[in-house]
Amino acid sequence: MAKEEAPHVERLPADLLAHVLSLLPSFHDLAMAGGVSQRWHQAVGRSLSSRRRLSFAGQRTGDDFTARLVRAAVNLRDLDISRSCWGCQITDQGLLKLSSATCVPNLTSISLWGLARITDKGVVHLISRARSLQHLNIGGTFITDESLYAVANSCANLKSIIVWSCRHVTEAGLVAVVRRCPELECINVGGMRVSPESFAGLVSISPSLRIRSIPQILNADVLQVS
């Protein structure tokens, strides 16, 4: 009796299989693919380890699942876990878990846009390790100046920050960021309880600073992807 041949996909080189799996649009599909066989599990790991960008936008995800994928993406540079229409369930626990990921100190871009269940506790823990950060979108959250002090103390290379609609942030937090982040080029401060005079004060500290007040979640001119 002739030996049954393996399916064509099983005969793909490991690198090619990893590339094919990286094209899956859903991370949940990717997780399921990892359960097909030991070979596929290894290919999924290889796929994640090669990624430089992860976006959970449009994905229904929670703390454990998100942290597990981020930990596997050891070469990650751009992380987007913004709230989506599917109801992202990321909390402070999730931020605490993914903060230990190998990639965090090398991240250059992070978006936490609209995550209503996170607070300063999780944000400070994450940002304090993200010392290569250049672009941060933390708009639409309930953070306070405490998170901005962490940015000021840890992110000397920061170039842009979105704090749109962060209504618990005050002038003091903004001033700390502008003073301590010498590379800062642009700040989005719309929808806040900070007076226009305060914004003028930021420009007096950094004359080349661009101040914007637009509600876009991701604006190409403000939050660039490295």
From TrEMBL:
BP-aspect Gene Ontology terms: SCF-dependent proteasomal ubiquitin-dependent protein catabolic process
Domain F-box/LRR-repeat protein 15-like leucin rich repeat, chain residue ranges per copy: 76-206
Organism phylogeny: Eukaryota, Viridiplantae, Streptophyta, Embryophyta, Tracheophyta
Source domain of life: Eukaryota
Every F-box domain range: 10-47
Entry-linked InterPro entries: F-box-like_dom_sf, F-box_dom, FBXL15_LRR, Leu-rich_rpt_Cys-con_subtyp, LRR_dom_sf
Organism for this UniProt entry: Brachypodium distachyon (Purple false brome)
GO CC annotation, single: SCF ubiquitin ligase complex
Pfam families: DUF7885, F-box-like
Name used for this protein in its record: F-box domain-containing protein
Encoding gene (name): LOC100846669
